[in-house]
Fold each of these.
Amino acid sequence: MNSFQPRTDDMQFILQQVLQAPAQLQALPAHTEADEALMQQVLEEAGKFVGEVVAPLNRDGDETGAQFRDGAVTMPPGFRDAYQAFWQAGWPSLACATEDGGQGLPTVLEAMLYEMLSAANHGWTMAPGLLHGAYECIKHHASDALKARYLKKVATGEWLATMCLTEPHAGSDLGLVRTRAVPLTNDKEGRYALSGTKIFISGGEHDLTDNIVHLVLARLPDSPPGPKGLSLFLCPKFYSDGSRSAVVCERIEEKMGLHGSPTCVMRFDEAAAWIVGEPGKGLNAMFVMMNAARLHVGLQGIGLLEAAWQKADTYAKERRQMRAPGSHSKAGEADAIEAHPAMRRILDAQRAWIDAGRVVAYRTALELDTLKHHPDPERRESASRWCSLVTPVLKSAWTDQAFTGASACLQVFGGHGYVREWGIEQHVRDARVAMIYEGTNEIQAIDLLLRKVLPDGGQALLHVLADLTDDLIDAPQYQRARQAIEQLAAFTRQQLLPRLQSPDAPIDTAQWLADDFLRALALVLMAWAWARIDMADPGGTTRWSTAHTGFWRWVWPEFDMRLATMNATLTPA
Amino acid sequence: MNSFQPRTDDMQFILQQVLQAPAQLQALPAHTEADEALMQQVLEEAGKFVGEVVAPLNRDGDETGAQFRDGAVTMPPGFRDAYQAFWQAGWPSLACATEDGGQGLPTVLEAMLYEMLSAANHGWTMAPGLLHGAYECIKHHASDALKARYLKKVATGEWLATMCLTEPHAGSDLGLVRTRAVPLTNDKEGRYALSGTKIFISGGEHDLTDNIVHLVLARLPDSPPGPKGLSLFLCPKFYSDGSRSAVVCERIEEKMGLHGSPTCVMRFDEAAAWIVGEPGKGLNAMFVMMNAARLHVGLQGIGLLEAAWQKADTYAKERRQMRAPGSHSKAGEADAIEAHPAMRRILDAQRAWIDAGRVVAYRTALELDTLKHHPDPERRESASRWCSLVTPVLKSAWTDQAFTGASACLQVFGGHGYVREWGIEQHVRDARVAMIYEGTNEIQAIDLLLRKVLPDGGQALLHVLADLTDDLIDAPQYQRARQAIEQLAAFTRQQLLPRLQSPDAPIDTAQWLADDFLRALALVLMAWAWARIDMADPGGTTRWSTAHTGFWRWVWPEFDMRLATMNATLTPA
């Protein structure tokens, strides 16, 4: 089994030709230097590091896994060295501000780095995966004293960070969190004592870095029940005097996959911690981390699917079984299985998801850069609209596809896919978790429809859909994509909104169809993305045109099914 | 984690009320005694054995797994004792002829036993899973001398059997098999020396029984290349004089799941073996085993889905998170997650597949009984038509659903589903293999469309579809199901057959749409099955009517998508 090799040429084509990122970024005062050459250089260096240092550790990460003993976690062979090389080379701080020790590069480059990392080694990548969110959270919410101690260490990745939210009885429902924070008496720094148990803490304990910074949701005394009673706290593994905090890793979970990442049960025994931000505003501060995390999870989906596709594509070219219809092989000779329609269909459909996913995800990252740095408030507003609506779609649809698509790629191997030797089954096991964490995919759909589409009467959504149409040349070859966009807009205006807003609508109707709505929007985004790719490569080299055709043949037909299901749900029998 | 408990009341309702099996079976001279009471007694006893003896071993089967050392395989704790109890109680020989040491009961009861066993412990069940096929193969093809030695041992399950087909370079394409069989000089029994390597041999080596009977595809000297050059041989682990044959288990595979079943690499070093049937007719003899095996794999799909659903359903009733829309819970209290539409949708859709799958699978088993024993050749002909067309659909569609549905059930657990503790992720890993073995699901689709529908111009299929319609009362509440059946018939007559038979049709068109066609037929069979269930329970108790509604809401919409995809493939742009 060969390890994953990033194909940065494909990624760059999408970034530079399809999305014309240099022009977009250079319009931002913060990124006037982000030209094609700079981005190319960063991505090639990143690809080299990922392919040479991180990817070869993936198999050991799965087989050996993170090991727990007496409260300590030993990471799989090579993980620590690779991480030390990673942060010392400055990769974690790519998109952090220069004044915090970062390099001040655009978010989109960081996004592309994490896509490659996830493809190469999902387990290893979990460790630095939350860093940037923790950096933003500390930067925007912590006191100056706290920032002085922690911001630079987290920005550079010298210390890793965790997000401690979930408790045994509080998963999707953070309002049920019980961990208590009680003011410490006579503490000069005004700290609190944290007590409680957190579960599913990725990287709660490990040997990659000398310190670990925990960001913890907890409840102050006399705080109201529910989410409004939650505050955010920072509790390190080691304080600056070298003493250890009262945070214990009780065990790590045995999981379906992702064995390279320790999923920890963390117990806080009156651990001294600083508050981050205002009391009762813990979820707000945490959401900064969670939004960044959701885009990253969408990118994991794209990366894992690319990794699975690479393996299946290579195998399909080498393995010969049966004669394909219309074969020109010599009598008695079998054809490469990539010549068989059922296998082609699998491979082309995955490429359709991967390439369109990149267009949508990189654009989202570019919109994040725009949101942060564009001088025009209206442009920032449109960037905010895009990120708010598209992030849950990316997270949900592309992690669903990472799992089902990796499983389809496994199928290309036949029985050989089910044995561990080829490494394809690891991708299926690893990918499964991304449908769950950072908000289950069902919660993403509810977030999209009930919190982002319905409250403003669909205005933001219709705005984004209109932008998508404006973004396409009005030429015959893009009519199908334009119609696809218009079809969803018309459905939203004419069916969805009036019926959901009607006083007769049962209170649960929106929830019944939220999943369908998210999928429909994902497919429309893909239709737009494929038109954009085609606009950048109008001749249509085989590489792109096969996947483009694959999109309309094998992926798009789901759209009508989703509309039909929504219509049936909206129209009581 | 509780182990699986068969729910025989649901299964019996389908067998006895929906399919009216007693009347059907008693029309067969061989099964005049198969009344409701007998079947109930057998199924309840089976359920007891499965729930008490086999199910509790499932977790250990996964965690400890089969262990390989120096050519020997040690099965997981308890497996041998359970197997000894199983065969001594007569379960393997349930449907074997009484003259061969069996109990002469209907195939449908054996089918239901295997569904329960697969649900309870897929890995353990692999061991006896091939027995009945081996029994039929030896019974119908072996010489009397060979039968005298092996038939009864295999019928009773005192010895287990294997099917040695696959080789490293010959998976789906058995024509590429290279294992050689050379006549032994001066062998009194006229045996052959087998030499070659077979892979993916389930139960090739183990400690469950005192002997193992291998049925091996190999090539005689000077035989033509391709499938017609293959003959079938029988080679035991031990000969009757107690000496060991030259068959070696070289290693067992590390797999994604199914750890309770050793998947062996078997090396034959001039191993003395008897021919079974005529030279060059090996595939014919083997197909007896493979058809039985395909129905069993479909039943595995149904069983695994039932096991996953049971776990998810229990969890969804107990776990409380968030308030459901329209909740009547007290302020601040969370609702059981089964009250959330996204979770209900998952649970109802799986029940729609499980219950309809049982109707289709049990009917298929009843048709096998009819095919074997009905005095009327016309009725046997219609039974043969059904089995031939429906077996690949069951194998493919219900194993696809076992995997995607078990994954959906995992989603109900949120993060708890991804950790091993609850046992749900094991079902996902175990279920994945069923999409591959006994002919990949893509090969099932090709078998259905290219070998069974097209060669007779669709006659058999249209016959089966007409029978389905005739089988439903012509009443308003069954119009939708009747229309569904007619829609596929009309599409077959008006679109599919004319276009595929046209001289202009590209040679690969049928292969491009084979998967869609199989899915469309699966959905039509489900529409029929749900109408049949409704006919048996016209009041529609909540238990059945919820899943029936779930079928039309969440499962059926795929049908139009499949028709649209096929139409697009048939109509060049």
Amino acid sequence: MMSVRSFLLTILLPASVYAQNGSLVQYVKPIIGTAKMGHTFPGATVPFGAVQLSPDTDTIPYAVDGKYNGDVYKYCAGYQYNDPTIVGFSHTHFSGTGHSDLGDFLIMPTTGELQMNPGTADRPQDGYRSAFSHDNEIAEPNYYKVKLNDHNILAELTTSTRVGFHQYTFPKSSQSHIILDLMAGIYNYEDKNVWTVVRVVNDTLVTGYRQTNGWARTRTAYFAMSFSKPFKEYGTQNNDKPQVYKGFWRKFDQNKNFPDIAGRNLRMHFDFNTEADEQIKIKFALSPVSMQNAVANMREEIPDWNFERVKEEGQNAWEKELQKIAINVPTKEDRINFYTAMYHAALMPTVYMDTNGEYKGLDQEIHKSAGFTNYTSFSLWDTFRAFHPYLNLINPKRNADMVASMMAHYDQSVLHMLPVWSHYANDNWCMSGYHSVSVVADAIIKGIYKGDAMAALNACVQTANARNYEGIGEYIDKGYISAEESGTSVSNTLEYAYDDWCIAQLAKKLGQTAIYQDFIKRSDNWRNVYDKSIGFMRPRLNDGSFKKDFDVLKTDGQGFIEGNTWNFSLYVPHNPEGMMENMGGKKRLSRYLDSLFTMHLPDEFFAHTEDITREGIIGNYVHGNEPSHHVAYLYNITGEPWKTQEKVRMILKHQYHNGADGLGGNDDCGQMSAWYIFSSLGFYPVAPASDEYWLGSPAVNEAKISVGNGKEFVIKAVNQSEKNVFVKKVLLNGKEVKNNRIKHADLIGGGELVFYMSAKKKI
Amino acid sequence: MMSVRSFLLTILLPASVYAQNGSLVQYVKPIIGTAKMGHTFPGATVPFGAVQLSPDTDTIPYAVDGKYNGDVYKYCAGYQYNDPTIVGFSHTHFSGTGHSDLGDFLIMPTTGELQMNPGTADRPQDGYRSAFSHDNEIAEPNYYKVKLNDHNILAELTTSTRVGFHQYTFPKSSQSHIILDLMAGIYNYEDKNVWTVVRVVNDTLVTGYRQTNGWARTRTAYFAMSFSKPFKEYGTQNNDKPQVYKGFWRKFDQNKNFPDIAGRNLRMHFDFNTEADEQIKIKFALSPVSMQNAVANMREEIPDWNFERVKEEGQNAWEKELQKIAINVPTKEDRINFYTAMYHAALMPTVYMDTNGEYKGLDQEIHKSAGFTNYTSFSLWDTFRAFHPYLNLINPKRNADMVASMMAHYDQSVLHMLPVWSHYANDNWCMSGYHSVSVVADAIIKGIYKGDAMAALNACVQTANARNYEGIGEYIDKGYISAEESGTSVSNTLEYAYDDWCIAQLAKKLGQTAIYQDFIKRSDNWRNVYDKSIGFMRPRLNDGSFKKDFDVLKTDGQGFIEGNTWNFSLYVPHNPEGMMENMGGKKRLSRYLDSLFTMHLPDEFFAHTEDITREGIIGNYVHGNEPSHHVAYLYNITGEPWKTQEKVRMILKHQYHNGADGLGGNDDCGQMSAWYIFSSLGFYPVAPASDEYWLGSPAVNEAKISVGNGKEFVIKAVNQSEKNVFVKKVLLNGKEVKNNRIKHADLIGGGELVFYMSAKKKI
């Protein structure tokens, strides 16, 4: 499937022993997913760090002449591997999203005549951007290095949680510059830049903030920028439309050496003389709250100018994160895939809180965290599936804090809703469902979240009863959303039904019978959009009849969000047996799944859906997008677990590899990677908020998962190989597992799961 | 001079006894100055209150088709007496300025079909505005009442320091509305509205903020709005340009009953059913810091819905303020003029701090006040002259806090400058000079400001050495500003020279000899722009020669700000004797002054200067603008104090009266009024930062000034009358005053100043 591999990172030698301690960082290739639609970024960051300091290869407008600019989609993470130039290095990036924002505070070092405009990729010499080559580029966890050819500057980046650390090695020049582009950004809507303030405090310290109206409607990012060397001059390019009243600001020359700067569209330059190989370093701290907090974050996290130490501390943090799972895998490529997946599954959500505990809430007020780390950027439609369950397994404290952050969001919400897709003190309500209830319920049911469980249940119930939100009112009244009400009426109904089941599970755990009864009933609503006459989920009209014109293959305009009914008809994760029964039993489901994975579809069937790409498709099965992530595991209930095993291994093999284009679709804030990790280990959380995992086929020979309190859960796959993908027998702590399921409680106590593998299916 | 008196507020009866205790508020007519160019507002406020809740009769754009809209000048305070309609009631207004801003949060109650646009003055029925009549209008301190004819609604307004309190009496209607116009504002520049957030917390509480880029470049006003009765519905009109990406916000109907609102150009409506004569009350609290602080301000200041009590408390505060000076005057008109002047001299600067002590600093950070009340809106070019000296006399604690506020501004200034014209955490640098040094020096020299005097001196010196600011560098280097450097080079040089003298006086007081020497030398720089050959101050070129083309009458393009050289040549308040000597001695100055007050000028000489109006002119003397405010007193040094006495009385009589058009020019944040108060009492601070007042001719029969610590300074004008304007003799505590000057120390100890008045000049 992967016809284009733009470069070969991997030496395909066997690597079938555990990696040495302290050496896992080397297996992380941040470049994976930076080509095509992976939408990952190659730059520097620490685990869940607030700063993602990374090169942007273009910063193009969202719309041109009032029309959507399709090319912008490529730049969700700012970087496209095949681009020839780097515009600069900005401090905030999503990882793997399908819509975007951020790209704040783009910095570019230059030499020669001052150029204040970015220029274009085909004529970089007309702007401050620079050509670069992958030959001169290194991307490691918390370290990025590149030669900027046009300026003869070596750029190196590292970070702490809240501070980006730049190290630029200049040539000898009396015209060395640092550009700070405060107009640049990712997904630059018209008028996205709402307001910008900059204060040049002295000749080495600059503070300010940038307020945007983008995917996050009301967002302010504060900064403090410190130079290792005083600049000799500085200036501002103000690109705002001139006003009739210019005011008494004219009393100053505001373009040059004027320290009190504000406007909508600003760029700045700081000028230096440099000797050959002289380094200019910049510490760039962020804060969600204020400039003074940004200064404090900088002083607390990086009090000196030791770039190497900061790089090492961040890489040590990564090493610690990666060592939570030790693996013995057949090839180095497997190891790289696995640890890069772990890396990608530890980038988001990001810390959104200053070192003093303050953060900006959804209510646009400053809050002080009550004993938890506040996180932001919850892509919940993606991450409730495997990512948050994965954190519950190896990062329970972080996931508990994420639930606490979601509860704070709820407490601050004037809509009284948990987050849908929230970032930077905003909810953008992207995608469908109210899947935070899945994350909340899963974390409480598994004993991870220790906060007020009744308050959490109440938040879930309130969210599920937000009648004005995307058809919820009708869904409550009629048991389904009508096609008249919503263009994604079927997928919404299906997703609400699963979410309702999560609430029911939480209510049951808390002994709230009435809530349980209400929501367990609602969780059956998937049945109301199933059309038995055609054997698919189907849009239903207000009058109860099914929509006439209906295409089971098309992804757009059929009542589903980013998927067709072939994929979405399988979306009853909380009651797959019921779904199967409805479809006509095991054989019918088996045939359905077989068709899904093998049927031939012309390209145009997915051409209209941004988040589904050719690379992410196997037959009609769409791995590159989330709704089908549990589907390969469904053969476990058709009596053909060997098909699950085969399919999972096929997906692991074909949808993930070591190239820059090594992801078959958006990584989606770690969800694609979490799928990889779980499936490689041989199990998957088909229905979060249950305590069950369904078994697949481990791709590791052996793995040790640190499950907390010093305990390890060991997975062994005896005789595992590329051919031996079928499971003969599974023993959990010596006892045979007969139903292809294990429980979370079995894992977190520590223990051993032994798969006996074979080249022959066990039928 | 006052040919147009649009109405008669005054009954011209003798009122030659002290008013009764507790009854001074009745003599304040806030309507004075609301016609023509007084630029005062008639609405409700408490002394120096953060809220000025007042009707706006139009809210017109600053520019039309890219050109300045001259009409906007009329609306500096939002209200023009001769306008037929009221658009609504907004919460922030400057008093008497010549440029403007504010007008935040315009509220209008309406009935009938919902109208979301303001409409026009000639067709009010097309919008939410309403016709009104002065017959149905009452304006008192902290109380404003008007009938809104188009809606049959009685509107009443009162305030506490930080909360506006609206009381609307509706007719019976199922279509009663409260409009909250978040686009409306005073001096509406294009794109002035930067961002607005509104949160409908519940059916009686709304919070939010409004961020503007107007005269204050970066300004945010936060609010909390509470209704006495739940609204039944609400909605938003969003007038923003539609974006290509509409986002998932479309999941909600954002126009109706949607509580999470943000955008650039928003209007809101809240809908009610009302019975006949049903009152809907609104408390509207402001904060410079946050919505939650606004809520706290509201709860602290007005915990209930008792409109009458709040009105009474505010009027009691005014009574207390007014009682600081008791007067016995010949007529009720005099009394109204006097107490209205005291009223106008207690409106600005305004409290800019929450009840918890937090405020937004010039550095855009949140600060907590260290033991002082933070004030904002310092129109220092105006107010350093008589207004701040006036506060030093009767409101020393407030003036000390104002100096503390200016010092906080300095500490937060990235330019390391004291305020020039500052408002709402910004400096707009309007007008010329660095006159905060006069206020600071005056307050320290008079023992008012008890803070760190050395830090204050340092702030003054730093400000005076801000080389990049309006010619200061050249001024320091050459002793004058060249015509090439600045269009107001002469007035700047003159004003800097006076300011430098203030710094010298402060340095002397603090024993800082080197600083004293430096600045006393600089204070002589006025000599460098005096052209002896023509006997006027005159622009000088870079090469030292005087500018060739020069018109001594014209106000524009001649090197002066808002004045001609006839007026400005007298601006050496710190060394009038030196000035007189330079001009050729007493006789020459006397003739000069005589000419000034009597010469005939065609109208067009002042037509180009916004802040100078026909009404404010006596001959070529311009009382309506500030640079000449000390001029009438200069006859004291020509040996003709009787001319000072005559001129002062003439100005008192002709430049101030009880009509809506009763001010001869902008009140300028209390400066015009402070001139009236001082001059009525018989003395004036010709050179603040000296401890001297110059004597004139008291228009009171008697006055008692509370000068603190229970002490009174009593002024008696024996035989004073409209004819007996000449001073025969003056006794200070029984001792004759021979030089027509008294000292501040003489006043604040308490005592008695007796003027013996006569109809005959004492030559």
